[in-house]
Amino acid sequence: MYWTEKKTEFWLTHKSRTLTDRLGNAIVVEQSLLFWGQYDFLVEGGHFTEAQLIEFGHDTVEEFSLPFTLGLQDAVAHLFIAFSEDEEGREP
Predict the structure, then answer these.
(1) How far apart (Å, rounded) are the C-alpha atoms in residues 8 and 88?
(2) pTM for the whole structure
(3) 85, 87, 70: which is closest to 35 by C-alpha?
(4) What is the distance between the terminal CA atoms of the chain, rounded to a whole angstrom?
(5) Taking Cα atoms as reference points, which of 28, 35, 16 lies closest to residue 75?
(6) What Rg, from alpha-carbon coordinates, does the chain have?
């Protein structure tokens, strides 16, 4: 896949969102539009809830001593790869 410089810059643009964990706490997260596309794929596709992804982010933080934003990014990226490949392999 080839992306132009303009398309790459677009996907790397940062955006903040407020997420809600399983206890109802608000967490402000700033990530790239590419991340939010992967995140939305997992949530809107019914693969995970917002709270589940947040928990996976916290698990990654504990395991690798990362800041939360990187832990969430790591968890979402790995899950996105697994679930998007699964959907690509399905016949219509």
Answers:
(1) 23
(2) 0.85
(3) 70
(4) 23
(5) 35
(6) 14
